[in-house]
Amino acid sequence: MRKLGLIKKWELLSPYRKLIVGFLIAIFIGTTLLKLPFSLKENQNISMLDSLFTIVSAICVTGLSVVDVSQVFTPIGQLIVLFFIQLGGLGVMTVSIIVFLLVGEKMSFETRELLKEERNSNSNGGITNFIKHLLLIVFIIELLGAFILTYAFSKYYSIKVSIFYGLFHSISAFCNAGFSLFTNNLENFKYDKLISLTISLLIIFGGIGFVTINSLFIVKKKKIRDLSLTSKLALIVTFFLLFIGTILFFGFEYTNSSTLKNMNFFDKVLNSFFQSVTLRTAGFNTVPLSNIRPATIFISYIFMFIGASPGSTGGGIKTTTFGILIFYALGILKRKEHIEVFKRRIDWELMNKALAIVVISVFYVIIIITIILSIENFSIDKVIYEVVSAFSTTGLSLGITAELGEISKLLIIITMFIGRLGPMTVALAFTNNKKSLIKYPKEDILIG
Hints:
Blueprint: H1 2-12, H2 15-35, H3 48-59, H4 69-72, H5 75-90, H6 92-102, H7 109-118, H8 127-153, H9 159-174, H10 193-208, H11 210-218, H12 229-253, H13 265-279, H14 294-306, H15 319-333, E1 339-341, E2 344-346, H16 348-375, H17 380-391, H18 406-421, H19 423-429
Antiparallel strand pairs: 1-2
Helix pairs in contact: 2-3, 2-5, 2-7, 2-19, 3-5, 3-18, 5-9, 6-7, 8-9, 8-10, 8-11, 9-10, 10-13, 11-12, 12-13, 12-14, 12-15, 14-17, 15-16, 16-17, 16-18, 17-18, 18-19
């Protein structure tokens, strides 16, 4: 009877709440597994909070860590972290539904709605085909990335170790997780072009979104104009941000002896490009970030906050949200009646959603920053960097993650969770989703 009661309660939950519950169950299982003896190296022990932090960071594909994954966890523990990175990259509900499909279960309308919310899609049609394409795309890209990285790592390690490193970093990069099995992340490989470019491409493919990748495959024999509006906007904003990010990092850090100064011109460009790629949601670094210049820190806030594209493995407010806001501003300046993107009219409801995402995100980030500043002794730039990095599931840090107090760690955990699911999804899970039928009298307010 109790089991039937739980099933009934589950059925009554909205898709948003089911999504949250699914992630919470996975987090509980992962946290428990990381505390077991087979996950920890001899004489190593971590608190339940640090285990929770690690798993949330993995399943939310963030990369922030309060422990050194390479030193604390056994190969089994590292594989557990890797499994939850992959689970978070694909999506908890997506993986659960794949299992149901494999055992012959049919997909209900409610299940399609769940997938639609998790993948941030506009429609729940063609979900089965989408999942098949998604799995095929992920498998091919991650396997190819693992093969190339194995070859690259074999110059430094045995073939057995190289295979493990290749697989781990390929999945971590494609899922935009930023977890590394090296104490100083990828700083030892800043001059290795093959590793840097492979990781960069994996991050880009994971960050542009499954919908966009799928669209590229569909129109491979046609012209770029046949891409969906979402894919066009995601690609254009992504490459614009990559280009601008590379130029700015290169310019600001060119004479910084802690980052680029001692490199030749090509290596400066390569590392600037790598940091531009990883800055938005991935969390890897080839240069030490603790001494980057204030201007670089400031632009990092903006790029991290924007994040990756919808339906991807990354976080942030998303490239398309940012793109729509730019077109909206241009439309206002040109006194246009509607928002126009590539000769297409955008519905005002979508614009309202974009503005809501930004407003909710900004307010949430400000609140968390204020609380952490009030209880910690770190400089404001480091705290802002940490919070924005967690919210955007980027995973980059200026070196304060492990030194945070318990309350601050919990706040960062919650921030990573909200950042992965999306602020709108979490907000809608705790609000009444019914449309109000009441219309009040209209009155203007002076603004600007």
